[in-house]
C-alpha cells in the first residue's frame, strides 16, 4: 500500500485559501484520488472544541501554542495518520506552519519552543506540499472586513501583527527546500486557479 500525500494550505486570514481549497479537493478527486479534507485547529470532535476556545477566549500565548499542538496531536492520531496509512490523500486547511507564523512570528513565541512541540507531536511527519497563498496585509484585511461577519480573536489583531505573520510565512517558504510553494493570491481567481493546476500537475 502506497502512503498517501499530505497537502496543507496556508496564508493570512483573507488570503483566499478557503476559496481555493474546495476547488483543489475537487480536482484531485476528479483524477481518482481519495481525499480527506480537514482543517486546523480542529478536524476532530475534541479539536473543534479546542478551536472554539482558541478563536474566542483570551489566553496566555504559551497556552495558545499548547492548545494548538494538543488539537494537532489528536488530529494526527485520529484522522491524518490513519488516512495517509490507508493510502488516502489529506488536504488540510492550515497546519504547523501556521503555528510558526502566528504564535512565533505574530506573537513572538520562541521558535525553539515551537520546534520542540513540533517534534513531540509530529515525530518528524511533515506535509509533502504546502501551498502558501500570499497577499499584502492590506488586501487580506479588506477581504476579511468586507465579509461582514464577526471577527475572531486572530482576525481582530492589528496590521503589524499580520505583517509579522506574513514575513514569517515567507521566511519559512524561502528555507523550506521547495516544500512550501508561494501562490500569489492577489490575482483574479482564474489566474490563481491556473497556478494551482500547474502545481497539482507536478504531484
Ligand atoms: P482559519 O482557518 O483561518 O479560520 P477561518 O478561515 O475559518 O476563519 O483559522 C483560524 C485561525 O487560527 C487563523 O486566524 C490562524 C489561527 N491559527 C494559529 O494561530 N495557529 C495555528 O497553529 C493554526 C492552525 C491556526
Which descriptors would you attach to this protein?
203 residues; alpha/beta; 5-stranded parallel sheet; 8 helices; 13% strand; binds thymidine-5'-diphosphate
Structural commentary:
Helices cover 56% and strands 13% of the residues. Helix 1 crosses helix 8 (189-201), helix 2 runs antiparallel to helix 3 and helix 4 packs across helix 7. It has helices at residues 17-30, 45-56, 61-86, 96-106, 111-122, 137-146, 159-174, 189-201; strands at 6-11, 35-39, 89-93, 129-134, 180-184. The protein is of the alpha/beta class. The radius of gyration is 16 Å and the shape is globular. The structure holds thymidine-5'-diphosphate. Residues 13, 18, 39-41, 68, 93-94, 98-99, 102-103, 152, 154 line the site of thymidine-5'-diphosphate (TYD).
Amino acid at each position: 500500500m502506497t502512503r498517501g500525500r499530505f497537502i496543507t494550505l496556508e496564508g493570512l486570514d483573507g488570503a483566499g485559501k478557503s476559496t481555493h481549497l474546495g476547488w483543489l479537493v475537487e480536482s484531485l478527486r476528479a483524477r481518482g484520488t481519495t481525499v480527506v479534507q480537514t482543517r486546523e485547529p480542529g478536524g476532530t470532535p475534541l479539536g473543534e472544541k479546542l478551536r472554539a476556545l482558541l478563536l474566542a477566549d483570551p489566553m496566555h500565548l504559551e497556552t495558545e501554542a499548547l492548545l494548538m499542538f494538543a488539537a494537532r496531536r489528536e488530529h494526527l492520531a485520529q484522522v491524518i495518520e490513519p488516512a495517509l496509512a490507508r493510502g488516502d490523500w489529506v488536504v488540510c486547511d492550515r497546519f504547523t506552519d501556521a503555528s510558526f507564523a502566528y504564535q512565533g512570528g505574530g506573537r513572538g513565541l520562541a521558535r525553539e519552543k515551537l520546534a520542540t512541540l513540533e517534534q513531540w507531536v509530529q515525530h518528524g511527519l511533515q506535509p509533502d506540499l504546502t501551498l502558501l497563498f500570499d497577499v499584502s496585509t492590506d488586501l487580506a484585511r479588506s477581504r476579511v472586513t468586507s465579509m461582514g461577519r464577526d471577527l475572531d480573536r486572530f482576525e481582530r489583531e492589528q496590521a503589524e501583527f499580520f505583517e509579522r505573520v506574513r514575513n514569517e510565512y515567507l521566511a519559512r517558504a524561502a528555507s523550506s527546500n521547495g516544500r512550501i510553494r508561494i501562490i500569489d493570491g492577489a490575482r483574479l481567481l482564474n489566474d490563481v486557479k491556473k497556478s494551482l493546476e500547474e502545481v497539482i500537475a507536478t504531484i
